[in-house]
Amino acid sequence: MFRRLPEIETALNAAAEAVAFTIDGRPAKARAGDSVAAALLANGVTACRNTPVSGAARGPYCMMGICFDCLVTIDGTGNRQGCQVRVSPGMAVETQNGKREVER
Amino acid sequence: MTQPRRGGEYDVAVIGGGLVGSALAWGLARSGQTVAMLDEGDIAVRPSRGNFALVWVQGKGLGMSDYAGWTKKSSDDWGGFADLLYQQTGLDVAYRRPGGFMPMLSEEDLQARANAMMRLHNQPDMIPYPYEVMDRETLRKELPFIGPEVVGGTYCPLDGHCNSLRLLRTLHKGIGMLGVDYRPNHRVERIEHRDGGFRMAIAGNGAGGEIRAGKVVIAAGHDGARLAPMVGLSAPVRPQRGHVIVTEKTAPFLHHPTVYIRQTDEGGVMIGDSFEEAGFDTTLQPGVSSAIAERAIRFFPLLGKLNVVRSWAALRVLTPDGFPIYEESKTAPGAFVATCHSGVTLAANHALTLAPLIAAGGLGDRFTPFSARRFHVPQAA
Amino acid sequence: MSKFDFEIAVVGAGPAGLAAAALAASKGASVVLLDEQAEPGGQIYRAVTETPVRDRKVLGPDYWHGAELMGPLRDSGAAHWPGTTVWSVARPREDAADGHRPLQIGLSRNGAAAMLTVRHVILATGALERPFPIPGWTLPGVLGAGAAQVLLKTSGLVPSGATVMAGSGPLLWLLAWQYLQAGARIDAILDTTPKQNWRAALPLLPGFLRSPYLGKGMKLMLDVRRKLTVIGNVTALRAEGAIGGDSALKSVVYTRNGAEHRLPADTLLLHQGVIPNLNLANATGCAQRWDEQQRCWRPTTDAWGATSVEGVSLAGDGAGIGGARAAEEAGRLAALDALHRLGRIGREQRDQAAVPFRAALDRALTGRAFLDTLYTPAEAFRVPADDTIVCRCEEITAGAVREAVRMGCSGPNQAKSFLRCGMGPCQGRLCGPTVTEVIAVERGVSPAEVGYYRLRPPVKPITLAELAALPKTDADIDAVFKH
């Protein structure tokens, strides 16, 4: 679980830096400049997928683009690295269950 | 592990630990032979780690009907072979035989393909097998994702595929359970035929450095060219480079293998391949990978969105006519060579047919067409 | 049109890359700095141009030094391409007519792949956290301490709920100190530094006493020890989810003096040092060697960072861990050597210009041996028990690797074929060092003899459509279509 430092949370509530997006269809709020993975953690989503091998739950681990554990579906495209994509207004982020579908 | 008989001597030494060597070692050990399998180390030219994993029949053997028949036999025996491996090791090599396709991008190519299949079946002594030439609409019922350029293709119900890396692992596990003495980092420097048996000098091996066996089977892939002449055999093979691409794991969507594209049991999509004469250089060429990717998308446009997670270039073991060599030495009886570029497709034959014959003492007339002597006959003008 | 897009490409905009690009461009070379992140800084100075953490005492003066590297880069005229993933560095097939052998860089930018032709490449790919394979390290809620630091730098995020940090090494203490400054909650630090490391490190202490780290490091560690619960001599660790479930972290179990203890935890931050991020160098064909002191693989380089591949050099932690200040100086040395190789400066000019950088590099490296030795992780944390996952992507355990060795696998490449370990999208970054050491211990030989994965491009995934859109020669097309 992660939280913002208080002064950053305050500034975020002042709205100028806030970005509205969705996680599995639910409205969520991030800070401009957040990666998708950071935005998930900031919104209390620790696990973002189940693995295609055993189905075990996984969440962001390295935050620098090397572990591929924060894979999520972003705006309909599967297996995006959440920590390498910046969250943007209206973005639809979906957690993943197992293997990616070829058509998305 | 079974100890070698008579002061360090094995019934058979198999040189090569790839798919051909390990299938033969498995079959030899099942036939009651004491076997040593001599292999190179972790980094070596290893086509068995880079192949495409088809168990493929259609189109093979134009120019040698015996090879077409040999291939069909292996395909027919593959299911039983996979079952035996599973019963022994508990590992599933994921053999499936849903029938395979060769889609075509132009009417001209489709016609040429249809003609080739017909010529193949018109050869003397050809054992026929079912196949179909399909137009676009028929093909699309089986492969709904084909792109607009695909005009049709050929289909053969005998074609299938497996997980070839798991096959390699399963064979290695199996030979261990059968008591085969597996020796990695044992590159054979020299083979000597002496006192009715064979002595293999091992490169850079401090501990004695010699393996003795009553028979030797050279299944060393590219290294066969160097080793075969030491015992009066010939294996004029050359490397031919092929690039392969594999994507991330994807939910099952492609239910039949095609000659260039197949989905593995683990979910990745394997995409091949290329034909390059580049010696032993396995450096990847981005342009070649790109051409392979482009063709794949023309066959199945929806592949474009998938992420490529790995690619590699492997070296086919090719004889001058592309067909296998199986032969026993005339001057050093007990020495055999087995080499081919279809180590997956022919694994069932190697394990279940060829190995028992070697164990029993000889190949017989049936294998005469596969002798390397076919390359020594002066060509007609 | 020039045959080259740029004379020099620098890969990675951390301290080494920033310094290398700025210096090379300031001497007139055409330089492009390629970086995966949206903003320069690498991981050590991540988000230094835009972090929301404006109170400078939280991230500390060493972090803010990174901001000083931005001006020289801007002024140098080097092109900076952020958001650019380099997935291959390769030579083209044939020698160019004039004898130059241009290098081709495969990159992906804004969802499109392209090939870039350059004369020299400086890889400044930095470090990654050393794998810390313990049971449960794959559970959601378990992150690298470096990852947590990225969350702090980029987004001002700190752990909430029960938080445990575990491991060893300078970064662990730095992060704990930064959390203290930020007022974040840490329930405990589990120190896994092996007691006996002190004995081995002690003879190296005189070097460390002259090190620039000493003052800062000691103060920081004392601050943390005074204010937080630090539990030393931890010899075993595991992360556990809910009973019978694997959904998320619930507790951390550690062993101290032979007794097991359990701490409730929502977040576990693991760290046991950093190692070179060498995938691109390896896939480029650069020779590498096992470094016994740092217990990791590092590409082989000369005093200028030149690798075994002509035209490819390495600077910074990607060539062996030396820290941010050392990386900066190594970047400058690599830039000078590249300028010399390109004929822009003479040998004497290069050597003369290098004097202050080399002196600064030596200073920055003083005391490194002490830190390396003191913070060498215990074998239990490098070579885990059978039931521990080593390959996170394919979920392969240490036990499976050992079984493969018993079947005759003598190295990681055969193990990879048999087990798929190292075959997932991370391409062995999180299992490679572990697999080498597990095989080495099982075989009773050195890691150097066991070897490492042989990697190939793409070192980062690109889509098939991107790959398909790259330029091809007639020979490339014939190799695929004419058969």
TrEMBL record, chain A:
UniProt cross-references to Gene3D superfamilies, sorted A to Z: 2Fe-2S iron-sulphur cluster binding domain, sarcosine oxidase, alpha subunit, N-terminal domain
UniProt KW keywords: Oxidoreductase
Protein name: (2Fe-2S)-binding protein
UniProtKB/TrEMBL annotation, chain B:
Transmembrane segments: 12-29
Source species, domain of life: Bacteria
Keyword field contains Transmembrane helix: yes
Keywords annotated in UniProt: Membrane, Oxidoreductase, Transmembrane, Transmembrane helix
Domain FAD dependent oxidoreductase stretches: 11-355
Pfam families linked: DAO
Record InterPro entries: FAD-dep_OxRdtase, FAD/NAD-bd_sf
Classification via PANTHER family: FAD-DEPENDENT OXIDOREDUCTASE DOMAIN-CONTAINING PROTEIN 1, SARCOSINE DEHYDROGENASE-RELATED
UniProt-recorded name of the protein: FAD-binding oxidoreductase
Protein source organism: Azospirillum endophyticum
From TrEMBL, chain C:
Family matches, as SUPFAM superfamilies: FAD/NAD(P)-binding domain
Record keywords: Oxidoreductase
Coiled coil: none
Leader sequence segment: none
Key word Oxidoreductase present: yes
Domain FAD/NAD(P)-binding: 7-331
InterPro entries: BFD-like_2Fe2S-bd_dom, BFD-like_2Fe2S-bd_dom_sf, FAD/NAD-bd_sf, FAD/NAD-binding_dom, Metab_Enz_Cyan_OpOx_G3PDH, Opine_Oxase_asu/HCN_bsu
Domain BFD-like [2Fe-2S]-binding intervals: 389-440
Protein name: FAD-dependent oxidoreductase
Organism expressing this protein natively: Azospirillum endophyticum
Lineage: Bacteria, Pseudomonadati, Pseudomonadota, Alphaproteobacteria, Rhodospirillales
